[in-house]
Amino acid sequence: MAIEKRRLGNILVNAGKITSFQLQEALKAQKSLGKKLGEILVDSKIITEDEIIEAIEQQTGIKKIDLNTIEFNRKAISLIPENLCKKYTLIPFGFENNRIKVTLADPLNIFAIDDVAISTGFEIESFISRKADINKYIGIYYSSQQVDNAAIQLSKESTKALKKAKENVDVISDVNSAPVVRMVDYMFKNSIELKASDIHIEPFENEIRIRYRIDGKLRTINKLGIESLAPLVTRIKIMAGLNIAEKRIPQDGKIMIKVDDKEVDLRISVLPVVFGEKVVIRILNKGSGIIRKEDLGMDEENIKKVNRIISNPHGIILVTGPTGSGKSTTLYSILSELNSNELNIITVEDPVEFTMNGINQVNVNEKAGLTFASGLRSILRQDPDIVMIGEIRDEETAEIAIRAAITGHLVLSTLHTNDAPSSIARLIDMGIKPYLVSTSVAGIIAQRLVRKICSNCKTSYEASDYEKRILGQDINDKLILYKGCGCGYCQETGYTGRIGIYEIMELTRKHRQAIDSEVTSDVLRDIGIENGMNTLEIECKKLVLQGVTTMEEFEAITTSEV
Fold this sequence. Notes:
Layout: H1 2-14, H2 20-33, H3 37-43, H4 49-60, H5 74-79, H6 82-88, E1 90-96, E2 99-104, H7 110-120, E3 123-128, H8 131-166, H9 178-193, E4 196-203, E5 207-214, E6 217-225, H10 229-240, E7 251-259, E8 262-273, E9 276-285, H11 300-310, E10 315-320, H12 327-338, E11 345-349, E12 360-363, H13 372-379, E13 386-389, H14 395-406, E14 410-415, H15 420-429, H16 434-440, E15 441-453, E16 458-462, H17 465-470, E17 480-484, E18 495-506, H18 509-516, H19 521-530, H20 536-546, H21 551-559
Parallel strand pairs: 2-3, 10-14, 10-15, 11-12, 11-13, 13-14
Antiparallel strand pairs: 1-2, 4-5, 4-9, 5-6, 7-8, 8-9, 15-18, 16-17
């Protein structure tokens, strides 16, 4: 391997990408770090991965392949096992004239090519691609292939189990059979690799539909025969510690799994429907970490507004929006910034999504009588400086939170409202007196998540007169907008990832006087705009004009209701 690493170094020097001195320094670092030469050079910011790929292509003739723009050959995928792909960071994508086309992160590794050739019995034609792209498509194609294989086996085994059941034979052991175990394991792993937030297992008359929620939208991933429902649901129930004999009432549970040495918390909800039990699994990936507010998608002006709000020594800070709009992520980001050895910070959550060093976190347990309200009462006897309540759901919790804010605590929580001004009306509707609301609320952050256009298939087009009008642009001027046309990278959706948009209302004296006078949310919104508040609509419009998101997402925001 040392020869190969020096060979890469020579290629880069000959291509003029690095100097001989930089190569020698990197080789010294390699001896102590035990990492690949290319990784050391990239980590040191001496060269980019794309520059390495370009140099290898120029100096060796090994062609570069953009995996996001090609169609994968299923036969090629089936010829090379997943363990070899992961071992050498490679993936097959084509099969022609008894030759497998394979792209590698390190095509100079002759041992990898020889190993694959011996394993498959075919000649190998090698290419080079980005490491991240190879790993992504290994996750997509091999996990889905394994799920399909497990599903076929599960269907066969389930048919046998159904026959046993009719003959009154004990079938509990079938739940631990290899096909159903593989099916569930691969489903969990695959959903996490695809960055899904939820898994839906839905029974219908003749089939089961499995869908993942990715970037806020449900996508059908697989369909199984209805005979697979019982072993599939029972397996999940056993893992979650639920009653497998009870099929008439809803049940909730949780499963803790490890994927790539990272803990993932799965929240299970089972609901009896017409054709069986529907299961929804919420994925809480604890390994994803806390996001800094600078990385949440806020612009510089919004960051300044948030900084001013959280600098208040006491009061309530509310984060509002529908389920799945990133409220918890924003709260954790704020808590992470406020976290200090000089402060006692306590949270009560349902559930605790991320554990944070230095912060005391309490899990709601309604069966044991530990609710948001009762937890909050106990927290206030623990000498807190900052309190975070997962959600204000009722008048009792709201009253205690208001009292805590008025008596010198900084309180953070969430509400379900359409926008920032509506949060004031929601608190008053809960039974809180207007003067208490005006006295206690320090600021409100309303937010949504919008999908970002896929950078790989992003294309421009000329806006219609209708789109110009909606965006507040002159219809006589030419306006270029963007959208994704769909590709392998984004799984034909035109979108990859999401970005937050924020409506931040800092409460001024004028706001507080208006709240005491019990004005409408529209009046509060107008006061906010006068004070420099950008509405969600304005924030989303900016992203459309910048080419970050689409008109489709803009229209979804402007017509959405919580």
